Amino acid sequence: MTIALKIPFRRRGETQTGPVRADGDKRRRMVVSPEGVPIPFMLASRGSRAAALFLDLLMIFGAIIGSTLILAWIANGIGFNFNKEDGPAGRAMQALVIVWVVAMFLFRNAWFLFFELGPRGATPGKRICGIRVAARARGVNGGRLTTEAVIARNLVRDIELFMPLIFFISASVEGGDTKMAGWAGLGWFLIFALFPFFNRDRLRCGDMIAGTWVVEAPKTKLETALSVGGAARGHSQETGAQYRFSDADLAIYGEYELQVLERVLRENRADGLRDVTEAICRKIGWNAGAGDERAFLEAYYAQLRARLETGMRFGKRKADKHSERA
Amino acid sequence: MNAVTTGIAQRIGGWFSKPSETVVAAEQAALRSDRFRLEREADWKRLDAILKRMEAGRTRGLSDEDLLALPTLYRTAASSLSIARETSLDAALVGYLEALTQRAWFLVYGPRASLWSWFRGFLGGGWSASVRGLGVDLLIALALMVAGTVVGWLLVASNPEWYYSLVPGGFADERVPGASREVLRGTLFGNQDQDGMSVFAASLFSNNAQVSILCFALGFAFGLPTMLLLIHNTALLGAMLWLYHGQGLLLDFVGWLSIHGTTELFAILLAGAAGIHVGRSMAFPGNLPVMDAAAAAGRRAAQVMTGVVLMLVIAALLEGFARQMVDSTPSRLIVGGFMLVLWTGYFFAFRRGVR
Predict the structure, then answer these.
(1) Is the same domain home to A180 and A303?
(2) How far apart are CA A203 and CA A208, in angstroms?
(3) Separation in Å, CA B308 to CA B213, B259, B301
(4) Most Cβ neighbours (<10 Å): which of B147, B151, B318, B330?
(5) Which 8-state DSSP code applies to residue A196?
(6) B285 three-state secondary structure
(7) Which of A32, A37, A100, A114 to mutate to test binding with chain B, by most B CBs within 10 Å of its CB?
(8) Could you give the C-alpha distances from B99 to A45, A314, B81, B95, B108, in angstroms and in order?
(9) Are A55 and A171 in a shared domain?
(10) Residues B110-155: pLDDT tens digits?
(11) Which domain holds residue A78?
(12) What SS3 class is residue A214?
């Protein structure tokens, strides 16, 4: 038996460091900041982008309906008056119609523009889905998201999204072949909707022309350090026991196992803690007790980390339990 | 003097006072990487708080010290990240620093502070510079538009039936081949008392802006649809020119058209050139990778397009109001010519702030 830590399952002999994520590695892009620090970007999944778009369209639709209703209500107050008379009421009606036309134009073209230029770089729909717009990296060097880029990516959205609709509507209004127009519109729409499936960075046309991509917005919370509590010094609060591990006890694991252990400790589920404790005890030849798993694991974590970090400072790293320490 | 002494007193007080809580915690921490973390955590938290405020759009509420400290704090976080990667195995810490640096990066290297300051730069040189940056594509678009007009004229001249397929139903109300001189003249003059012109202008603008956005966006397919769209739209113009020429009203029609047409056709020229620019840079990217070439062209073209929308607003105002108010051909030509000179001068002679 060489499987020491049970969560998560991993093929034996696979030399991979860092936490394993579902399709994380495919979506991860390392981008070098202007200061020369590589920073990971996670490309947004296509599903979340579609959901964000749907939410935005819903909101735009709601805003259009809402503003139309408000204007209609005001018009009602003036008294509907479509007769071309030159009184003040007629003028007011004209002004209202102008406001309506301009508002429709803005909702269609400026919604995305306005929000994506804000400090969050995301429309309300994107914010809900936890994604944002960023400048695409050139090679490995990160760029700066410019106003022009945001304008470009949203102007192209117009043909991707609204064109087929217009196409269909104009065909049915002018009495053309609506069936034909429908199929053409659908084909057109599919070309652009499927575009992100055919390139590595999941760009839609607008992203390509503007030099942008859509990434997951970074999470913000700093977890507490696990290695500064009392238990981390090897002293259990509950039982008063002292846990000290010998060098040989600690030498069997590497950085990967340390991070799995960290995750287990942060999740803090009783059965997870028990399983891992048993696995470690079996491996280092201790008798596994019960009831004090957390203190035991925190002590092991802190001492393993101390050992590995000391090695790091001297340039010796141990990726996981399979790699030999130089 | 007083201020100096209190300052010194404070500093000495600082030397002899009890060590602060974080320092104590840092000294007690067993691991070197934890000491590193505890010593710097205050800076990170401060950056975090600033970022949170800015992300919520409350930049105005920030104090000057915080705003000035932002770049420094960003660089501190970035350097902390490099150090943490080499010395710490605390995955949560590295993850947090990665996210923090990324968030700060988005703000420090984000879009310009406000839309307004961008707009000022745009009017004060950015727009005309990007129009000049289109270079030869302007000439290509112009050539296509001239060719479209000539083709439209020749087609209708050879067979008037073409008129009906070129000019969509909405336009061809009474302006059809065979219409009398009086009818045609009536469409050009004497509409001063028409009502609802402002509504007409607003919807005209909306329609024209949509067409020109289409013109630009289709540049994506190597510019070919843009070229077709340019030719098709100017063929319509050629057909109308022929129609009025047949009744000896060519100059009057040109005057009627020029009052807003110089602005509108110029805007369509720019939109087409922007589309061709994007398409051409994708077909012939030069030394850059295709994607980078497309991105560079796309950004320049987007700036031109913002200007095009502005021009169309002006064109719609001219069309809705000025055309009905100015009712003689010479003065119409003067207004149109003036607008043409104005735009040309602004784009090609105005070279402030060339980047």
Answers:
(1) no
(2) 6
(3) 9, 17, 10
(4) B318
(5) G
(6) coil
(7) A37
(8) 18, 28, 10, 6, 14
(9) yes
(10) 776 566 777 888 888 888 888 888 888 899 989 998 999 999 889 8
(11) 42-216
(12) strand
Task: Test A159 with B217 for CB contact under 8 angstroms.
Answer: yes
Instruction: Tell me: do A66 and A139 sit in the same domain.
Output: yes
Domain ranges of chain B: 18-110, 116-348
CB contact under 8 A, A222 and B48: yes
The reply to whether residue A208 touches residue B295, judged by beta carbons under 8 angstroms, is yes
Residues A142 and A172 in one domain: yes
Q: CA nearest A150: which of A209, A198, A192? A: A209
Residue of B90, B19, B92, B25 whose CA lies nearest to A230: B25
Instruction: Say whether pLDDT at A157 is over 70.
Output: yes
Residue A142 predicted with pLDDT over 80: no
Q: Is the pLDDT of residue B179 over 80?
A: no
Looking at the structure, do residues A257 and A198 belong to the same domain, yes or no? Answer: no
Tokens of B96: 């947090």
Contact list, A308 vs chain B (CB under 8 Å): 89
Point out the domain boundary residue: A216, A235, A264. Answer: A216
B301 in contact with chain A, both atoms CB, cutoff 8 A: yes
Contacts with A21 (C-beta within 8 Å, 6 or more apart), sequence order: none
A17, part of any domain: no
In the stretch 181-220 of chain B, residues with CB closer than 8 A to chain A read 195-196, 198-199, 202-203, 205-206, 209-210, 213-214, 216-218, 220
**Shared-domain flag, residues A206 and A158:** yes
Does the beta-carbon distance from B303 to A148 stay under 8 Å?
Answer: yes
Cis peptide before A19 (omega within 30 of 0): no
Which of A98, A104, A259 minimises the CB distance to B198? A98
Residue B86 in contact with partner chain A when CB distance is under 8 A:
yes
Rounded Cα distance between B100 and A265, Å, is 23
Cα–Cα distance measured from residue A109 to residue A104, given in angstroms and rounded to the nearest whole number:
9
Q: For residues A232 and A200, state if they share a domain.
A: no
Q: Residue A27 falls within a domain, yes or no? A: no
A136 and A62 in a common domain: yes
Looking at the domain assignment, is residue A86 inside a domain?
Answer: yes
Out of A184, A216, A248, a domain closes at A216
User: What is the Cα–Cα distance from B115 to B201, expressed in whole angstroms?
Assistant: 26
Calculate ∠ Cα A119-B109-B63, nearest 5°: 60
A307–chain B nearest CA distance, Å: 10
Place of tokens 């002292």: A242
Among B100, B106, B117, B171, the residue to mutate for chain A (most A Cβ within 10 A): B106
B29/A39 touch (CB, cutoff 8 Å), yes or no: no
Interchain proximity A209–B278, CB inside 8 Å: yes
Identify the bridge partners of residue A212 per DSSP, sorted by sequence position.
Answer: A135
Q: What is the CA radius of gyration of chain A?
A: 30
ipTM score: 0.78
How far apart are alpha carbons B205 and B55 in whole angstroms?
35
Instruction: State the pTM of this model.
Output: 0.73
pLDDT, mean over chain A: 77
CA dist A169 and A174 (Å) reads 9
Distance from CA of B3 to the nearest CA of A (A): 39
- Alpha-helical segments (H) within B115-223: 115-121, 127-133, 136-158, 162-166, 181-188, 197-217
Among B residues 95-114, those touching chain A with beta carbons less than 8 Å apart: 95-96, 98-103, 105-107, 109-112
For residue range B81-114, list pLDDT tens digits in order: 998 888 888 888 888 888 899 888 888 887 765 6
